[in-house]
Amino acid sequence: MTDAVLEIRGLNVDYGLGEDAVHAIRDVDLTLHRGEVLGLAGESGSGKSTLAYGLTRLLPPPGVITGGEVLYHPDGGDPVDVLRMDHAALRRFRWAETAIVFQGAMNSLNPVHRISTQLTDVIKAHDPRGTSAARLARARELLHLVGISADRLESYPHQLSGGMRQRVMIGMALALEPKVVIMDEPTTALDVVVQRQILRQLVELRERLGFSVVFITHDLSLLVEFSDRIAIMYGGRIVEEAASADLYRDPLHPYSHGLLNSFPALRGPKRELTGIPGSPPDLRGMPSGCAFHPRCPHAMERCGVEVPVLGVPPDKSTTAHVAVDQRSPADRTVACWLHPVHDDGF
């Protein structure tokens, strides 16, 4: 997991135009490495889904990308900026290179079409020269891949359980063997047992097929267990990024610490849940300085004036004084005045 497959650089997304525009994503830098599960966590309204739809150019109006790059690194080819692809290139990129499982995915299936029709339509749209028999055989493979019997191909969505519908959507996302799969809170409506079953299967598929995953959720406990790295979002910015084990043991940002103390431990002694006081900020009127400072128990005077820079604290870097775009995947980054980074961005 040392080479990048997707790089987001300085991404900015607004809703609306002019002075009344809402800045939903601000200067986001994020790298997804090959074969990696990257978790993206934060409360509702922090910008997680907007980031996913922005990097795939699926933003609904009035969403507008106002700056940045999304560099995709194909196997054996030069990186291409997704934000500058023409319509034909973007159509080839979606689903074949990058697939997305949408929020509320188990209700995304068309209720009046059989599962076979919906799976084969995806394949036909990107490979119209294939035969009907070949597409149907691939549909059977996809159901087998996600642990569903092939005789379910002739079922309608309402004849499947919620977990089975979710698995069908994951199978559909893998139909063209993409290199990147983005999952936007795909298990929110499922019970915890089915959640774990689907996530374990996702990890097994990742290990078998070698794709990378961006897994978006508000449930940090899921990411700690299943992801390789975790990025924490708040107020449209990345405020901390670290290996999942490091973030669980030693969160640096007070927001990350609050999220970790908002769910009960499955093992060990009982502990009091503290949670995070207050509510996420209104993007139409963001606080000055650090957006989290009105809710932060460690807020200082500086926090209400200056926006902290996301970077590698000197005592947390695996390599001394590295630029953000040259850091190791093992490096930690944080945007908090409790852990100031060098002013030159190193």
Automatic annotation (TrEMBL):
<comment type="similarity">
    <text>Belongs to the ABC transporter superfamily.</text>
</comment>
<dbReference type="InterPro" id="IPR027417">
    <property type="entry name" value="P-loop_NTPase"/>
</dbReference>
<dbReference type="InterPro" id="IPR017871">
    <property type="entry name" value="ABC_transporter-like_CS"/>
</dbReference>
<dbReference type="InterPro" id="IPR013563">
    <property type="entry name" value="Oligopep_ABC_C"/>
</dbReference>
<dbReference type="InterPro" id="IPR003439">
    <property type="entry name" value="ABC_transporter-like_ATP-bd"/>
</dbReference>
<dbReference type="GO" id="GO:0016887">
    <property type="term" value="F:ATP hydrolysis activity"/>
</dbReference>
<keyword id="KW-0067">ATP-binding</keyword>
<feature type="domain" description="ABC transporter">
    <location>
        <begin position="8"/>
        <end position="260"/>
    </location>
</feature>
<dbReference type="Pfam" id="PF08352">
    <property type="entry name" value="oligo_HPY"/>
</dbReference>
<protein>
    <submittedName>
        <fullName>Peptide/nickel transport system ATP-binding protein</fullName>
    </submittedName>
</protein>
<dbReference type="Pfam" id="PF00005">
    <property type="entry name" value="ABC_tran"/>
</dbReference>
<dbReference type="GO" id="GO:0005524">
    <property type="term" value="F:ATP binding"/>
</dbReference>
<keyword id="KW-0547">Nucleotide-binding</keyword>
<keyword id="KW-0813">Transport</keyword>
<dbReference type="GO" id="GO:0015833">
    <property type="term" value="P:peptide transport"/>
</dbReference>
<dbReference type="InterPro" id="IPR003593">
    <property type="entry name" value="AAA+_ATPase"/>
</dbReference>
